[in-house]
Amino acid sequence: MGRLLRRNIWIEAGISLFLMLFFIYFYCHIDQWVIETLPSTISPAFFPSVVTLVLIIMSALLTGFCLRSVRHMLAGKVDEERLELQEGGEEAGRFAALAGYVGILFLYLIGLHFLGFVYSTPIVMFLVSLMLGLRHWLIGIVCYVLFTLLLNYVAFNFMQIILPTGVLFG
Fold this sequence. Notes:
Blueprint: H1 3-28, H2 30-33, H3 46-75, H4 80-87, H5 90-114, H6 117-132, H7 137-157
Helix pairs in contact: 1-3, 5-6, 6-7
């Protein structure tokens, strides 16, 4: 088994374990961080708690898969598919794509602060779609704008959540 493949397995296991512990910590402290802005019938921490629980479950599954890969690696069993990806040079392409997604999400956080949810979300959705191979970009843009406006309307009027408006337009 190659040194690069061993390193990638340990990195994946570390990241998945970190994410699971981070989301558990976040779930335990969510009541202190959520600010009630509008009176509502349910707790304002309900929706963030549900999302955090889903993320904890997904992180636990990812951690389980990574620990299985570590166990196979330590036992000397080679996952043929991973070995073929590494030999074909596709591992580096996957890492570059992951770095691109992380960069887009970082720009999204900056965009949320300055532009707000309504303006930054369709842009980020469009950029991610391009990375995934979007062909009909005009239809995509229309769908992203309509989805963002609908989500903003539902969040404000039904869930009583005020999404970020941004410092430039707020």
